[in-house]
Model the fold of this input.
Amino acid sequence: MRGEQHPGARLQVAAVDEEFEPGLVGVSAPVRDFRGAVIAAINVSAPKGRLGGHLDEAGRRTLAVARELSAKLGYHPEPRPH
Done:
């Protein structure tokens, strides 16, 4: 669940796996205001032995919470063309 971007895409979830501290993993998702500007982030981090095997699920849940909070702040993304 690495935070990967392609041209024109917005980063949705960032994941770390011991990049900052041995044994620590985590995921983060941006919270946006009504203009779409990132104003905060929701983060979950824990020891790798506890969360390491669940980063995908933690990323999905973290993103859902960030999106819910963003919507309450008035952010409504435009539908992406197919």
